[in-house]
Structures are given as C-alpha cells and as structure tokens.
Amino acid sequence: MAASLVRRDKKSTAAHLKADLNWTDNSSGVRQLQELLDSVLNPEKPAADTEALDWCKCLIAGGEGFEEFCKTVRSYDNATLCGLVWTANFVAYRCRTCGISPCMSLCAECFNNGDHTGHDFNMFRSQAGGACDCGDSNVMRETGFCNRHRLRTGENVPSVPRDLLLMSEMVLPRFIICIIQYLRDGYTEPDTSTERDLQKVLQQLEPQISFLEELTKMGGAMRTVLTKILTNQQIFKDLSVGQEENVYAKKNYEKYLSALKNSGLVSVEEKAQSGAAEPTRGAEAGALGLLGAEAPASPDESNKEEDQDGGQSVGQRKRVKLSSTAKDPSIMDSLKHKCFLEELLFWTIKYEFPQKMVTFLLNMLPDQDYKITFTKTFVQHYAFIMKTLMKSQESDTMSNRIVHISVQLFSNEELARHVTEECQLLDIMVTVLLYMMESCLIKSELQDEENSRHVVVNCSEPLLKNNTYWPLVSDFINILSHQSVAKKFLEDHSLLMLWMSFVSFFQGMNLNKRELSEHVEFESQTYYAAFAAELEACAQPMWGLLTHCKVKETQEYTKTVVRYCLETLQIWFDAIGFVDEPAPNQVTFHLPLHRYYAMFLSKAVKCQGLDLDSLLPHQEMLMKIMVHPLQIQASLSEIHSNMWVRNGLQIKGQAMTYVQSHFCNSMIDPDIFLLQVCASRLDPDYFISSVFERFKVVDLLTMASVHQNAVLDGEQERPMLEGALTFLVILSSLRIHLGMADDEILRAEMVSQLCMNDRTHSSLLDLIPENPNPKSGIVPGSCSFEEMLSAVADFKAPVFEPGGSMQQGMYTPKEEVWEKEFDPIMVVLRTVYRRDVQSAMDRYSAFLKQSGMHTTGNPWPPYKERTPLHPCYKGLDRLLHCKTLHIVIFTLLYKIWLDHSNMSEHVLCMVLYLIELGLDNQVQEDKEDEEPCIEEHCHDSWFPGTNLLSNLHHVINYVRVRVPETAPEVKREKDPPPSTSADASNFGQNSRRLTGNWRENVREAQVFSLVAERRRKFQEIINRSSTEASQVVRPKSSSTRWVPPGTPPQLVTEILEIRESMLSLLIKLHQKLSAKQNSLSATWLEDMETNSHAHGDGITAIERILTKAATRSRQSKRSIQEICGKVSPPVAPKKNSPTDKNTMDKDERRQRARERQQKLLAEFASRQKSFMETAMDVESPDAEAAMDLGASEVMESEVLYDCVICGQSGPSTEDRPTGLVVLLQASSVLGHRCKSDETKKLPTTDDEHIYPADTCGAAHDVRLALMQRFFKDSSCLQSVSIGWEGGVYVQTCGHTLHIDCHKSYMVSLRNDQVLQGFSVDKGEFTCPLCRQFANSVLPCRPGRSTEVVSWHMPTNKKTAVLVKEVEDLQEQLGLFPVSTTTESNLSKEMESVIKDIKNTTQRKYMDYGKNPGSPDNDFLFMYSVARTNLELELVHRGGNLCSGGASAAAKRSCLNQLFHVLAMHMRLYSIDSAYNPWTRLTQVAQRRDDCLDDERPEVPMLFRDCPSLLIIFVLTMPQPLRKE
C-alpha cells in the first residue's frame, strides 16, 4: 500500500490523506499515513536525499502549495513577543532607559517602530548573537514596545481551525525522530571522532533543520504544535526506543545510551566505585563529595574524566558543607531524557552547539510553555555543557553560542526565580564553577612554600588563558542581577561558604617573585588571565551582590557575607602558614577575599547604617589583614623604582593594570579602603612603623648624614621614600569610601582625568571607573554624567587640521576647576603612566601663569581641603597625630635642611602635606586618654604628647644616633656635653605607652605589648638606643651570611646637638627656599593676607602651614614670632644699592655651593672608604696607601649607561659594550656656504649658473687640485679636509643600549611581520625609547679613572724631556689601544661602525687621491668625518662652540664617542710613521731617502690647512682622549 502511495503524485496523495484523516473514524487514514512515513522517512536512507523533505512539505500543507499554507498559518499568529533571533555580527539596538535587564536588546524593526526619542540607547554589533525582547515585559518596560507588540495585535486573532494543522501534528513527530536518528547514528565517541566527522553529519542535516526553522517562523500557531510535540513524554517513549524488529534503530539507541553515560559530573564507573550511599550522603558531602570524589579518595579517582590528568589533584582540600538542597543528585547524575526537546538539546551540546540548531531552539522561545520547559532542560544539562566546553577545541565559538541561549533564559527574573526554586539553579551553577576551577589547581607558593596547604588556580592553563569559564560566570552574574535570586543566594549559608571557597582559589594566584640575579628568560603573560579572572569571576559577582545590599532591611545579608569572608581569610592565613611578616621579594596582586570583605564593610557603613566595630575582627586579625594589601602598595613603589627590572616588562604591566580604570574600583580602591580601616583601628605608631618597614626606608630615617641600608641600593632610596610618604598622604586624604557621596566621587574622578589631558566624551566615559556591575552598561547615575561633565568642563569643538583630517571635539577643565578642585593626590592614584602626573602639573602651572596667580618658578601641587570623615572612620586622623610620624617628619625636615643625600623636593612636598593634613584634622582628645601620658613628661621622650599642634613648637635638644666611625659627625664632637644624660632624646623609651587603650581587656593589652615591641624595634632602628643598637643594626650582606659583631665599619653612638623644633626647621627651610637670610620678619604674621595661600611653591606652602599653626594655637604663634625675631635680629634701616644686594647674594650663593661641594667630596671619600673596608677584609699596608689617593679621583668613577631595552644600568665594558643610538647621514650642506652675502637667484638664462664659484665646496676642490699638481699625493691628502660634499653627519637622540640587546632587537624587527617605514636589512631601526629614526650604534669607550697621565698638567719641562716622553709613548702604541692586540667585542663593534660610516656616503666622495683605494684616502676620510661633525656642530650652536645656541639643548652631541672611534682607527694607521705626525714632530733630523720613490716634495707646513692638522694631531695622540 505504502509503495503505491509513494509512487503517486505528492500533492493529490496529501489531499487524499488529509480528507481521510478528517473523518470521524480516521483509523485507516492514520494507518496509511504511518506506512507512507515509514517508507519515506527511513533513517537508513542518506540524509542528503531531499525526497523525504519534499514529501513532508506536501503532507503538512495537505495538498495546497507550501507557500500558501505558510501564509494561512501566519494569519493565525497570536504571539505577543517578537523573538526574532540573530547571530553574530548582526546590528541591533539596546535602550538603557527602557531596559529592566541590562542584557535587553531590540531588532531594528521593533526599535524604529517604538518611541525612543531622548532615551539613552546605542546601536551595537552583536558579538554572540541574541534575540529581540520586544513585547516581553519581564525584560523591558512596556512604554518601549513597538506599535505591533504594544497593541498586542496577536490577542484578537481568530482561533485556528482544527484541520489546518492536523497533518503537522501527525507528520512532525516522525520527522523529528528521523533527525534524532541521524544525530545518534552520526555520533562517534570522542576518542575516535574528529571535528570533521561531526561537521559532516551536520552539513548533511542542514536542509532538515532549516525546515524546522522555517516552521517556527510561521508564528504562534505552528509553535504551539511544535511545543506539544517536543515536550510530550508519551510520543518520545513510543518513538525513541525504536521498534523491536528494526536493527538499525536498536543500534542507534545503544549509541545514544553510551553517549549519555558520561554526561554527569561523575562518570558511571566512578559512581559504582564510590558506592551506593551517594544520594543519601547529601548534606554532608564535601565540595568534592558532591562531585563524586570522597575526600580520602584514592589518587586515581581524582581522574574524574579523560580531560583531567591525575597529577593535577592537589593535597587534601578542605571539605565544604553543602546545603541540603544539594541532596538532589541531578547535578552529578548522568542525564535521563523524557522528551524530544531534552534529547535535541543533548545532541546540540554534544555537537558543540551548531548555529542552525541554536537558532531553531531560540526561535521557539516566544512560546511560554516551551520557554519554561526549555529553561529547565538547559539547567538540567548545565554540568554537561561545562564538561563539553572544557574539552572543546573551539571553545570561543562555543562560548558565544552558549551565552546566546542562556542570556535569553536568565535575563527574565520571573523565569530565573522559578528555575532557582525548582531546579536548584544556584547550587548547580556554583558547583559547576567550582568543579571547573578544580581541574586546574596548583599548590600556592605564597609565604611558606614547603608547607603551604593553600591551592590556587594556575593562570597558564588554557581554561584561564582562553577565558573558557566566561559563559558560566556570565550566566552567574546575570542571575545575581535579579533581586529575588540574589536574596536566595545570600540567605543560603552553605552556598555562600561554597562560593567563598571558590573565591579563595583566586586568592594569591599569579605570584611574582623578584629576580635578584639574572634577567628572567621568558616573560610570561599569565597576568592578563589573572586580572581577567579576578575581575570576571570574583569582582563582578561581588558587585552584583552589593547592588542588593543597599538598604537597612538587608543588614543581615551583609553581616553574613562579612562573617564568611573573615572565616575564609582565617582559613587562608592558616593554610599559607602566615604569622606576622610577609615573605620577602614576593607579591601577588590578587586578594579577592580581602576585597570582598572591604567592599561589604564599605556598603554596610555607607548604605545600611551598620556600626563598623560590630563587623571588625580582633586586633590581631586586623594586623594580619593589613599585611598583604600593604605589601602591594610597597611593591608598586619598588616596581617604579626599578627594583623589579629583572622580571621584565610584564611586572610593570601588572602595576599598571592594577590601577587602570576598568580594574581600579575592584582592586586598588578596596585595598586602600581596607588599609584605612586598619589604620583607623590599630595603634597608629604600629601602623606607621609597619609602613616604613614595608617600604624598606627605616634605615634612611636617621639624623646622621651617613647611614647603611641593608635592603636598598642608594639610587632606590629616594623613590622608595617618596613612595612611602605619598602612600601615607593618599591613605589619610582619600575619601572615596569614607564619606564622599556618589556624585562627589564621580566629580572627583572626572576632574582628575580631565586634569591629566583633554578628553573626548567616549574616552572619558571609558576612563571613569564604573561603580556597580560593569556588564550592565549602565553608567553610574547615568543621568548625572552629562550634567557633571558640563559642570566641570568646557567643550572645545572639533576643528579641521591643514591636512584635511578632523580633530575630535575635546572636553577641557573649567578655570574654577583648576583653581579650586585640582587634586594632585587623586591624579597620582589614577595615573597608569607616571608621565600623566607630570602632564597634569604642567597644565596646572600653565593655568597659574596664564591667570597670573603664580608666575615665578614651578608651582607645587596644591593642597586641597577634604570632605569630613564619616564618624566611623574618625580614628584615621590618629595616624596624623602619633609620635612615630612626628619623629619621621622632624627627621626629614632636618635632613632636607642639611641637604642630606636622597632628599628631594617631592619628599619635602609630601612632608608638608602631612603636616597640613594633621593641622586640618585635629583629634578630639578625651580627658581619659591623657592619663597614661603623664609619665611621659620626663625628658627622655621625643615629644610630650601626640597632638601635632603642640608638638610643632616642641624643641628637641640632643639626639643620640648610631653612625659608622667614618661619618663626619664622629669627628665633630669627642666629649658629649654633660647635660646629655638628661636631655638625650631617645626613641627607646616610648615602649611604655599604651596610647589610651589601657581600658581594654587583657587580650587587647597583650596585643598592644606586641605593638609596643614592634614600635620599639622600629624606633631603635631609626635612631639607635645605646644598649641594644649593636644587635639591631643589620649587616650589609642582606643577612644571608653571618657577620661577627666586630666587622667594619664599626658603628658608634654619637650625640648630635639639634636644638630645633619643627617650626624652627620650617622657618629655616623657608629661608633656604627663598635664598634670603631673613625671609620672614618677626611681624610677618600680622602683615599676611590670608587668601593668597592656595597656589604657589614651597615657600607658599610653608607660609600657609605657619599661618594655620599660628591661628590654631597661641603657643605656636609666640614660638613663630620668637624664632623669626632670633633668626633676623632687627637692623637699623641701611641704604643698600640694589647692586650691593646682588653681589651679596652672589657671594653667599658661591660660598654655599663651595660648602656643598666639599661636603659631597667628603661624603664620597668616606663612602668609598667604608665600602672598601667592608668589601675587602685586607690588613695589608698597601690597601691603606691606596685608600689615601684623595677625593679627587673618586669623582672619576666609571660612567654608567642605561640600556633602554633591558632597563639595566652599568658601565660600558670591553666584553659587553654599550652604544649610542645614532643616525648616519651623508650631507653636502657645508659645501654650499658662500663668502658673499648677496641673495641667490634662480638662473633664468643659459649663461647664469645655479652653482656659484665662491662656495666652500668649490674652493676646497680647487685647492686640492692645485696642491696635487705640485706636491706628493700622500702628503696632499694629509693637508686638506674633504667632506664638504657627501660628508657623513652623525646625530643621536642621546639614548644608549647594550650592543647585544640591540642585536636581538634587530632580529625581532626582522621577524616582525608588520609593515615598517624603514628597511631593517640595511640596519635601520627606530630608537626603542623615543622612536627616533636611526641606522647605527656608536660604541661608548669604557671610562676608566686609572689612566692619569702627567700630560694634563701645565709643565715647564725641557723640550728634550718631552720628546723623550712622546717617543716612549710611541713605543707603547702597540699596547694601546687594547683592541690592536686582542679582538674584543668592543673593537669589533668599532670596526663595524666605521664600515657603516663608509657605506653612508658614495665612493666618489671618498677617493680624492691619484690611486683609488689607497690607505691615504681612508686616512683623509677618517679625520674629515671629525671635521665635518665639528663644523656642523658649530652651525647648530650659532657659530660658537662655547655658548649653547638655540637648539643646543634639543640636539644631543655625540662628538665624544665619535672621536674615540675615529681615534682608534687613526692610531692603527699611525703605527706606520708616514701617517704619524707625532713621530715627525719628535724626529730631529729628517732622513732624505724616503723621497726617492716620488720625486715631488711634501706639502710645506704653512701651506697646510690648520684645523685639519690639529684634528690629525688630536686623533693620533698616543694616549686616550679625555674630557678636560
């Protein structure tokens, strides 16, 4: 029967069958149809056969044409949603004003038909694909619907006639099972299959799936039919197993079962191993228990899947209790399918989400029943999706397709809540994420490497490197954006604990260890992965949760999170074996647990009115919490001080990323806030001493002019001290989390970005840190962004540039912003590149000059008043009022005043800033707090109390310091004054203080004794107390080698007489800065007008501080007047002519300069001596004698060069020479100079010449030709210069690099595929630092200070003696330069640069002799290069070598290095006496026999060219050239 039907005409058969089926008794019709379908839809036929598809179309249409049938069905479309699905690169719209969910999007048609005027919308190119949300009130507000979906035209559509879709209901189930059979059949196990096999199966099925897609587009009526079929469990049961007798279907079914087997998180075999107790264990299962591996699992069991290698299983992990809901074993079980939809999704995942299938599944979503079932199915398959994703080769494409689906499902709050309640969505997500990360854990090496029990993710694993986790995390962030779901998450404590253990996998990842000896060989780029992972997997879910903790009602949630953060932190500290000191030379930028804790604290105080103290742990825990964030701040300074150069550029990259605008509010801001909290609650002396210890500058804080620093080199001390002070200023003045309103924060961020540079609107939007969840695209208070921008900035309209290009419109800060709101501290915090700080300061000073506020000298960063602190953080001000800080301030003021080494203007600026902050933020002192201080009034303590205002005028008489015996202080004073014992101010005594916390319980007191101990140690180190100091001083050799107590240099205790107070030092610094003896008269306070203080330089800053001190304390005012009176005794007015005054100032300045120079020399000598003593423990008298060479040679140590490629600095050596980046160019410009001044005219007739005869080049040519007619050729070539035409000009940008670094740089340029504007093969390149064009490297001669020769002194020796000396030196010529005997790297490079110079110009400009190629030509060319460059230098400097001309500063000279290279080659020639003028000079009688070969005479001396002669003499001088 079926066979005859198949042969008949399709259309008439379909009509006939449809008629049969419409009868009441339709059994025969049904039977006929089934038989027909059995033969047509036989899965054993190849899928590519289109016959079956044609049959299906005809049967469904029931005899009409398929197109007409589609039209008819569409007319019954009752859908109220649009649901148009698109794939990647489709252009869609998003309107933030109408969106409820941040992921909402609209197709162009719905967007244009809706009313979005004045809304905040954007048009975007879809990355992963999406679907139109128009009509879905869960995702967007109804006001934004388009006309069609707002009017709900679908609701009043007539109901569908029964017979219209009758055939579809019969045919489609068979069609779908046929597709499923094909999918089952095509599937082969992963180990045997290749990508290609799966792709082939999909290609063959393309027409069938496209047909299903077409059906979905027919509208609501057809979708309802499809939904029924896809979700009906009975049809699936009947058709899925396959009929008994069909062997083919049976085989496919078995394939399907084997594919199902390992779809759960635990494969079936493992299930059997871990026993049947699995489901009942439920609540007690560990995180791994849930995942199927018992905690005491055998090693092979960790091999959960073929995609994990057993070696990855690390240590015993902590078992985490899971909520009882996790009893539901669906997360781990392998899947069981009950309907077509489930199996279709299963194959979609197995085949790695083919685009057509995804589109079909999504096109069905407007049907609500389908949507709910599909979402549940998707959740049920979640673990399976993750496993497939991890194995996938094309994880990027797959990720996009997963998100394409999940975004449609989870953006809908109603649906997300429903699935969370019914299917444990949250448990599934967290468990799956945890499982995923567990596949790539390694042992943490932070702190205690051997015994650490902490595990972290390995950032070099593809899972992290390729962001494979992204789709799952993005789903998690998406569902947390729904309040109902987030609340459920926050209420479920076991889930929270599980999440915290997930976050702790990232705590301390990507650890950096400082390279101390070699430059690291391979710069790993894992830090990209680490920063991305922390931002996406930790910070964004955190911001998501924080958005729901904004009101008082949610206090409990915050408390819970804070509690679990602290618990997890404690677990972490125990796991890494942390006690109190961080391990040296290690830093990790990733502390998500600290940041969770910080952000929830901030929200609790700011929005929920919780009391801070109720959320803080005990003091000891706070001390631990502050260590790692503080370590990061110190490391930032170390990185900028070049202490990590050997770790390569990537470490700088990390430091930049940490503060960069997309990361700063999730990284540096929480860290600084956490440190502020710790500072406000811990003992301030302890905190300050910890800061200076972490920044490694404690040794620097001594009154002595010489100190030893065990951990830092000399050049690192200054930047580290600046870093420590800047950090303290930021800490005490930043208010982002301490009381600023959101609008104020936005304003401050905007001002700081605009002050660095003018910005375009888009770049400003990008640079302002987004406060909540950055995925949302909702800018913080988006309404106020524009208002704020117009309040602080002016718009500069776009302009056309001459080339025709358009310059974008920029925003630039308003004048009043510069005047009142420019905050250098905020700028420092937000700059990624250090140059931006300088740029902001330059712009600021330009503004001041322009507005006439400050016209002389460079202004200092302005001081800005701060918003008041939130009452909870009042304790932060105690930081500015503690003795330790005051001692540091006093010491630094003293050192700056005395010009000690490593002090800078920046240090003074920050010290003054701290004083001013202290004066502006007074601490309200309780009477009780005063009591413990009574015993302090003995003289032994530095300061009587803790208040800055009263300490300012406290005079310190004597300080006891520990200095090396060689220090200048020792010589000064042998017998200490008798009063010392009473007055010697000594740090050690401070340990008795309990700073007012003596009322707290015993436990606290214990902690404080620990604090006091720490403080005492710190203070001993600064200015050592006489008893224990000898033990405290750390030996120079960074404590690796034991040094007996008596090793030199011996430290001795000296007593310095100081007799200064902070006020007196400030006044003396004022004089020093203004370079006037009596810069402040005794009455200046009265004359002062108060408003001129805001802007200016250091002088203004000091005046401002003194005025503030005087207005706030009468005692200070008296002291100031007294000091000013003492310093400048009143003089009778004397008429001084201005010239007198100038000469006086000049003399004074000269005197000062002389003193300073002497001091420097003495310091150098003593430093060198002490270094020599420590370096060589030699007792021989020779060593002593060598040391007495005197100070003059100390200055002539080797020149150090910085290599701009590897960043290291050092001398140029024979083996590893350094070179200058140079550009060699041939130039004939000198030859065109004319004697006559008349202006040149263009020739207009044949008689006129464009080249006049009186040019320099022409004159020299004539001269040489004339000489060659009468005199010996070789002699002629030594009597003139060439190079007027085609001379080689050598220029440099001034940057140096190691020659070997340069070679590897050139190799990398050669391999670089990018199109360059220069030819690398010819040796051309751009300077790696300033990008100037260059084509050679000029080696720098190693500078040695040993070759001191008597020649340099003016002498009155007899001529005969001098002649003898020259001859002796000639004898040694074989030895000098070294390169004639030994072929070193340096000499090779010198030879190659000479080759480059010769290749720069053409041959004709080098051969002027009669016989081409003779050495005479070379000799002439060589010294002419020197002449050419000297002449061109003259031109540059405006005709005078002594005065710097207009461009002298801009052009850096390389004559020094050039002359060395030329001299070396000239000396090679001068071994032959014909080329050595010195031998001629000293030979008394000239032998006649050397003129025989060429009868012509030599050129007489007076005919020769003087400059040329001089240059030959200089370059062949038998001893090295020196800069004298």
How does this structure look, described?
- The structure is a single chain.
- The protein is built from 64 helices and 22 strands.
- The protein is mostly helical.
- Strands 14-13-15 form a 3-stranded mixed sheet. Strands 19-18-22 form a 3-stranded antiparallel sheet. It has a two-stranded antiparallel sheet with strand order 1-4.
- Helix 4 (51-61) packs across helix 5 (66-74) and helix 42 runs antiparallel to helix 43 (905-920).
- The protein is globular, with a radius of gyration of 42 Å.
Layout of helices and strands, plus pairs?
Elements: H1 2-7, H2 10-22, H3 27-40, H4 51-61, H5 66-74, E1 85-86, E2 91-95, H6 108-113, E3 121-125, E4 130-131, H7 147-150, H8 166-186, H9 195-216, H10 220-231, H11 233-240, H12 247-261, H13 268-273, H14 278-281, H15 287-290, H16 340-350, H17 355-363, H18 368-380, H19 382-391, H20 395-410, H21 413-423, H22 425-438, E5 441-443, E6 455-457, H23 462-465, H24 470-480, H25 483-491, H26 493-504, E7 512-513, H27 526-546, H28 555-576, E8 586-587, H29 592-607, H30 612-615, H31 619-640, H32 649-659, H33 668-681, H34 684-694, H35 714-733, H36 742-756, H37 761-767, H38 782-792, E9 793-796, E10 799-800, E11 806-807, E12 810-813, H39 815-821, H40 824-830, H41 834-851, H42 883-897, H43 905-920, H44 927-930, H45 948-952, E13 956-964, H46 968-972, H47 980-983, E14 984-985, H48 1002-1022, H49 1029-1032, E15 1051-1060, H50 1062-1074, H51 1084-1087, H52 1098-1112, H53 1114-1127, H54 1138-1175, H55 1181-1187, E16 1201-1202, E17 1209-1210, E18 1218-1227, H56 1256-1270, H57 1273-1276, E19 1287-1298, H58 1299-1311, E20 1325-1326, E21 1333-1334, E22 1336-1339, ...
Helix pairs in contact: 2-3, 2-4, 4-5, 4-8, 8-9, 8-10, 8-16, 9-17, 17-20, 19-20, 19-22, 20-24, 22-24, 22-26, 24-27, 26-28, 27-29, 28-29, 29-33, 31-33, 31-35, 34-48, 35-43, 36-38, 36-40, 42-43, 42-50, 43-52, 50-52, 52-53, 60-62, 61-62, 61-64
